[in-house]
Write a structure and sequence with these properties.
This protein is α/β, with parallel strands linked by helices. It is built from eight helices and seven strands. Strands 3-2-1-4-5-6-7 form a seven-stranded parallel beta sheet, sandwiched between helices. Bound molecules: NADPH dihydro-nicotinamide-adenine-dinucleotide phosphate (NDP). NADPH dihydro-nicotinamide-adenine-dinucleotide phosphate (NDP) binds next to helix 1 and strand 2.
Length: about 260
């Protein structure tokens, strides 16, 4: 039996029109999975779906603002009918950040980051649990951040959502192992996407960041997607409850 394949698997990837989510959609589909994704911008979603279709990738999508509880329910309803009550792979990817110091965060900032990054990931796991279980072999991937592993000096609210996700990864791994559902978290350092392009464009910031990174560069979305795909394959069947950094060595570097 092939171990490095996703043939015959079904997947939901949140936030798949840009950045890391988009790379994950494409990686999973190229390994043979049938993928559904979502985003808020209908035009960008339709454009992406056309591009994937012309590449021969089996990807569908719907508009969903995953900070809305009701829209999360709707999305899982769609997945339920699309994939016949089963789902192999859930990738909780979509997330947002605001770079401020702890005292600067407003109540509104706090609620927004919690809703998009943590509430949605937790609720999607709850909603998808019966479908993951029905599939006979489920894999949950969280796109977390190194900000949930070490302190980056700002963006505290973002960091606590990612730290919480890393703990959620471990709890689900133990609680749902009996349902043959694995749960792993990927914690990237800077990856070239629209989320952080304004930061990467700042020369001083960029150089400070690179000086702490042993590989001396930022990452590409594909370099995160390859790990996501592996963690969904039979090849990784004994790996669960792990937080794996994709960070060019940043979190193990004590020498900057
Ligand atoms: P991008 O902003 O480039 O892409 C985010 C994607 O998610 C888009 O497709 C966006 O589409 C969608 N999205 C955002 N908010 C929502 C929402 N409320 N409802 C539905 N879809 C949404 O982000 P990245 O690819 O950089 O980030 C992806 C994940 O990776 C995040 O969780 C982030 O925290 C994490 N990460 C990123 C790092 C980086 O350096 N880039 C480093 C560490 C972690 P639309 O806006 O149209 O809804």
């Amino acid at each position: 039996k092939l171990r490095w394949t996703l043939e015959g698997r079904t997947a939901l990837v949140t936030g798949g029109t840009r950045g890391i989510g988009r790379a994950v959609v494409e990686e999973l589909a190229r390994f043979g999975a049938v993928v559904h994704t979502c985003s808020r911008n209908e035009e960008e979603l339709n454009k992406s779906l056309k591009e994937w279709q012309s590449e021969g990738l089996r990807v569908t999508g719907s508009v969903c603002d995953l900070s809305s509880r009701e829209q999360r329910h709707q999305l899982i309803e769609e997945i339920n009918s699309l994939f016949g009550g089963k789902l192999n792979i859930l990738v909780n990817n979509a997330g947002t950040s605001i770079k401020k110091t702890t005292v600067e965060f407003t109540e509104e900032d706090y609620r927004k980051i919690m809703a998009v990054n943590l509430d949605s990931a937790y609720h999607f796991c709850q909603l998808a649990h019966p479908l993951l279980k029905n599939s006979g072999s489920g894999s949950i991937i969280f796109i977390s951040s190194v900000a949930g592993v070490v302190s980056l000096g700002s963006s505290t609210v973002y960091a606590i959502t990612k730290g919480a996700i890393n703990q959620l990864t471990k709890n689900l791994a133990c609680e749902w192992a009996k349902d043959n559902i694995r749960s792993n978290s990927i914690a990237p350092w800077y990856i070239k996407t629209s989320l952080v392009e304004h930061l990467l464009g700042n020369k001083e910031f960029y150089e400070g960041m690179i000086s702490r990174t042993p590989l001396e560069r930022v990452g590409e979305p594909e370099e995160v997607a390859s790990l996501a795909a592996f963690l969904c394959m039979p090849a990784s069947s004994y790996i669960t409850g792990q937080v794996i950094c994709v960070d060019g060595g940043m979190t193990v570097n004590g020498f900057f």
